[in-house]
Amino acid sequence: MEQYKIDEYNHQHINDHQRKFNFVAEYVAQLDDVLQKLQAFNIAIPSWALGTGGTRFGRFSGGGEPRTLEEKISDVGTIHALNRSSNSISLHIPWDIPENATAIKAHAAQYGLHFDAVNSNTFQDQKDAKLSYKFGSLHHTDKAVRDQAIQHNIDVIKYGVELGSNALSVWLSDGSNFPGQLNFRKAFQNTLDSLQQIYAALPDDWKVWIEYKPFEPNFYSTTIGDWGQSHLLASKLGKKALTLVDLGHHLPNTNIEQIVSLLLMEQKLAGFHFNDSKYGDDDLTVGSINPYQLFLIFNELVEGMDARGLNHATGIGWMIDASHNVKDPIEDLIQSVEAIKIAYAQALLVDTKALVEAQQSNDVAKAQEILQAAYRTDVRPLLAEARLRAGGALNPIALYRELGVRDTLIKQRGAKTVATGL
Amino acid sequence: MEQYKIDEYNHQHINDHQRKFNFVAEYVAQLDDVLQKLQAFNIAIPSWALGTGGTRFGRFSGGGEPRTLEEKISDVGTIHALNRSSNSISLHIPWDIPENATAIKAHAAQYGLHFDAVNSNTFQDQKDAKLSYKFGSLHHTDKAVRDQAIQHNIDVIKYGVELGSNALSVWLSDGSNFPGQLNFRKAFQNTLDSLQQIYAALPDDWKVWIEYKPFEPNFYSTTIGDWGQSHLLASKLGKKALTLVDLGHHLPNTNIEQIVSLLLMEQKLAGFHFNDSKYGDDDLTVGSINPYQLFLIFNELVEGMDARGLNHATGIGWMIDASHNVKDPIEDLIQSVEAIKIAYAQALLVDTKALVEAQQSNDVAKAQEILQAAYRTDVRPLLAEARLRAGGALNPIALYRELGVRDTLIKQRGAKTVATGL
Amino acid sequence: MEQYKIDEYNHQHINDHQRKFNFVAEYVAQLDDVLQKLQAFNIAIPSWALGTGGTRFGRFSGGGEPRTLEEKISDVGTIHALNRSSNSISLHIPWDIPENATAIKAHAAQYGLHFDAVNSNTFQDQKDAKLSYKFGSLHHTDKAVRDQAIQHNIDVIKYGVELGSNALSVWLSDGSNFPGQLNFRKAFQNTLDSLQQIYAALPDDWKVWIEYKPFEPNFYSTTIGDWGQSHLLASKLGKKALTLVDLGHHLPNTNIEQIVSLLLMEQKLAGFHFNDSKYGDDDLTVGSINPYQLFLIFNELVEGMDARGLNHATGIGWMIDASHNVKDPIEDLIQSVEAIKIAYAQALLVDTKALVEAQQSNDVAKAQEILQAAYRTDVRPLLAEARLRAGGALNPIALYRELGVRDTLIKQRGAKTVATGL
Amino acid sequence: MEQYKIDEYNHQHINDHQRKFNFVAEYVAQLDDVLQKLQAFNIAIPSWALGTGGTRFGRFSGGGEPRTLEEKISDVGTIHALNRSSNSISLHIPWDIPENATAIKAHAAQYGLHFDAVNSNTFQDQKDAKLSYKFGSLHHTDKAVRDQAIQHNIDVIKYGVELGSNALSVWLSDGSNFPGQLNFRKAFQNTLDSLQQIYAALPDDWKVWIEYKPFEPNFYSTTIGDWGQSHLLASKLGKKALTLVDLGHHLPNTNIEQIVSLLLMEQKLAGFHFNDSKYGDDDLTVGSINPYQLFLIFNELVEGMDARGLNHATGIGWMIDASHNVKDPIEDLIQSVEAIKIAYAQALLVDTKALVEAQQSNDVAKAQEILQAAYRTDVRPLLAEARLRAGGALNPIALYRELGVRDTLIKQRGAKTVATGL
Question: Domain Xylose isomerase-like TIM barrel, which positions (chains A, B, C, D) (predicted)?
């Protein structure tokens, strides 16, 4: 993405933007602070999100999907050039093994990208694997399978070290499909024991992020099924172990924002896998189903991080984890990043002082007015201004379409490519 | 499965069986009637259930999976020989296309099997397909796609006619992943229009069964999402259109037995896809999660079919639709059939007269006592006796293991076979 | 609420308003049309919503609750004076029996109010009732109970006729708490028979609205449990019977907007009971939990009503049905009305033509962009302008507080009053 | 309940019982051990369960409800005489304040009853209360309210000490109805601080049981909302603080048995409030909706308690917490106790050794067979035999009806009595 194209586009739309920005800016108390925070805030893109995901019922590829890790990095580079908010990439091993770390880092650096948390995978059998994960990995009844899975995680850490990453993200599909299949206690203890061995292999400045999920692909129990189980493991492991929240990994009606608040309080919140969902782990575009919930989560994050003096941009990990089998993945990711930053901007606009007063006096109607006043504000011009200042496009998705990026990719890569991933 | 093996097994266990049967038989009011009904009651096996199913996260095959339709039929034959309750097979097109119907029918007949409802598939793109179902099939905005899907259904009917089937089972994954993607009304009307064309192609003695499902693989809306939508379509189509209930296709906490009762009342209940689930369309072994619910459904079925004078065995369609990626598929199907027949037997034991009186006088505690008295009865000896009389095994799964059937299949077919299906 | 107070308040804030309105107005295609529609759009207030609701665990009254129907009308008058969007009141019989209809109508007319749908109540036993509704009303096994409930509904119609209402709203709590308690089919048929008798008593220009709800106060089954059951009854009853949608009356994850679209298509949508919820029938302030869902519902309403040429304001019924045991009821209702009109205004801003094109070409990302562009617009100035033109307050809740209305009510009515209702 | 009536009843039915018992006894490996455990196993009855509960929509009293604590104790005495499995009563303060502990204890002792955990109540305002719990109690923003609630709990402990109880059961309804109302972190910390003060007042041999619940009566957040939050509090408080599981206090589809297993592992399981539910905290008769889930929970309990060497009868707390607005409360409680003991008996029949082997080798079908073999066994004769040996009735509910106990109570107490409680 050549910068001049972005500049040209911005030039054409600057007047309209200016009018909108000037309007809303007048109502923002600490404008510079807000804009600086918006500029500083980046969300990592997972390497598997550049291809079209599927379901067990089928996978409908789009065209021009990246065939290599380099092409995936290039796609993230396109996104980052447009929105200046996606400056890192999160690798999933073994879907994307960086054979030559130096070259890959250099390639990424060309786009201003670095490497976020690395993700292990013990929920699928790899071609050359000696043992199968059919009945789980770190929780397995067979020590040999556990050892294989532990070694895989240690290998992933090594890849991460080479790439300059500093966190291992672990999602286990381990669980059971039928009552009786598992002894829950032993499964938990095996998992803990396995994680302790992985924990021991962490470099000093690394963290391990422990994801939880109630169901799928196992449909009776999951061994790390909710935040309480993840937190229990993280507590037993030590300070470098934290709980990762994937927005789609909850039972119906869960109050996620409360969980976020408490994990922050306990200094155990690793960060987020962002997506949206209506039924389960639907992996839909962030903010496409319930944007108010996303705002409420950011409201807790801003409040809780400020209470602990954490830097919003770097205090915890931010990553998208969505699938999108009916959209152009790049457009989908741009929409997700935009939705996240809108929620963040709205949270920054909350009148904190008034809210604390309303809460203290149990003025519930007032508290709601305060939150909704921030939420109902059209903050898109603030995001656009932050992008403009950082060299991004006023309207990333519009420019992406105007430039026909996908058509170019299809010409380069073909119409029937299939990227690695789900 | 040679009959003498079954007979030998039964001979060894006949005394123990006789003691148990004699005990329970004394408490069964109309013993002969119950046993005859249990003998007559068969549940169709879908052709795709003989292989190991998977999820979007992976598929872990077992060994000895059937490589051809003939081998699938052979596996159903094994099940039926053991339990004498699975005398038909339900084909899924195009996973299992019967190229030579006469030969296939003869092959099936060797095992005492015939062909139940045929299932169309417009939720995956076939290799040679001109148009994609990425955005749906019968509801598609593009008439050409709808026409392709209509033609496929008509083709499936033709296959079914050749096989002696008399029902087309339609499950549409058509829906949307994001708000705005679909116009719900137009999608419904396109679906209706498409179904009308398929309906017109039905032979006189055929039915079309319309399945509903709230989500997956689409995660915002499904065009035939609940029983109300299926029933609305079926009502507009005509008498040959009926609603098919898949137990896993409901939102959390749905009272399925009430839906069953009302569809029976309206003469619109096509039949069942049996399975069990804890979270969504988990496709678990029937009766493995909530057997009391299964009993309550059968209680409504027996009551409602008796009220309309329907034959239990043939009045509506009975089919298993489960997946089982951690079990031997044959064992899983034997367990499912057993669970279904247990629920049916318990429902037959309900003291109907007393229940009507308790209901009439709102004696709620009594009504519960009556249902639970039937449910708490150990009816396994009744099932075993019915099997014995029909030439099946007293304990199908025990004999299946004793004979080492799976090992033989692995030797014949190999350890790494993968059957067609999900 | 004296008009001069409102005018004074508006005068003080007119400049700020004008700036905001001018900004957003520039982006609204058919500004006059939108403003006119907003002015015309009113939402009825139920008579029971002026007091503080409770739960089975307790009820915490606020102060100054209305002690009589006249005081309730006065409170609605206050709301309507402030927001000019609540010009009718919906009575619940027997909580609020209008002993002298002429006087009550005159009293309401002083505030510019008329009477919307009347609501019957057969879910509680009245003091002088001969028979109990412990086991239901219109579905009861005992004809005498059904007759009593039918007569009550006919009485309610009579009250409604005197008040100038033209619809009877029926919510039945009839259901069962335990398996076996009910015969679902007979319960449905008794309900249908009872409704037919009520239907026969409807004046020519009246409608009967049939509400559905999956659970509570019965926790195993509800006899009119979902839209499909309500629709089935309404279809059998005739053209004057329609289905009423209460937003809180759905199982988890239900796609309500799809139901709305289909009911509109079938000409069977009576209207709405607005509220919001996170878990069940929580009866929270409209738009307080999931405002995007509310917008999506209005998007379907606008599209579907336009497709049928219905007047938005009068084509179907609009009513709030919320409880609010921790807020001042008047403030809560003002917040609810505001949230409804925000969603409506946003739906009016959707670029319909572009959306149809995106849908037709399955451009899913574009369709989402179109909906979100409307939703993210800050439409509050449009609502304020519509209110201003109608004589209402620029900011109703701010003025309500500034004037200390509640304090005045407490002085007049006392701090410990308890209004009739839940 | 005179013993001779029970003996007479048993005498009449002894032959039938003997035949059934002899049949099943032959299949029970350690018959004496099982029978002794069944005899030893008692479930406490809460004092509020003897009256008819209601919902926010109404309360339909039965007749003969107990008017005093003495009458409640008498009713529990009746239950215990019949089933010999309900030898304690759990008091709810202030619904049932034992003014004269010595007399009450003596009264209870006449029936062979003692006092189980005492329950505090800070979810309702008491008549003479200075401060309101409208916005919570132990989590309240106002220290004065927290202090009042702390003092109430300390008072309840005092009542408990006098009665010979040794546990305080705390359920907090504290939470919020709307986003913004609460600061989750501060609410949690206030709760912790309050509980620490209550903890400090616990006698040495006492425990405090901390219940969790996701929603109702608050519908946005609950401050102790899930097991993870309860466990976090209990961990911070110390060894005397444990987590109490109420079966109805979970989000849809929660795997409760896994939670039970992990709490046992962590030595943090206080015990149970038994009931059943289909939608939420429905407070239905135990085992009336999903008896297999109850069995699975007991399977974890037996396994986990055995692993820690806990006495089944006394190792943790067992209590019913159900409501039943359509049943005779005494019949309902008898049904609940029966369902609990059936599940317990079935769990005792599980072939533990075979299950461990199946789990170790991931023989999932086998593991299911083992569990279902125990579950499908008709254990009612074992329960009857255990009752017989203890002096209870072979069939408690049948005898209760035969003796016309309720009619007698109505004559004694009147037809319109209303017991204290929900």
Answer: 98-283
